[in-house]
What we know:
Layout (H helix, E strand, L loop, with lengths): L1 H13 L5 H9 L2 H7 L6
Amino acid sequence: MAALRNLAIGILKTAGHASVAAACRHHARDATRTLETLGLRPA
Length: 43
């Protein structure tokens, strides 16, 4: 679980988010934002 958490934090930091907490709130509002951050398209 810690490895997955660290992976998520790394992805958010690489995407340019300064605050992990703010980024989590931002992505929690809309599931497609997470896909966009990962470079994927919603189906």
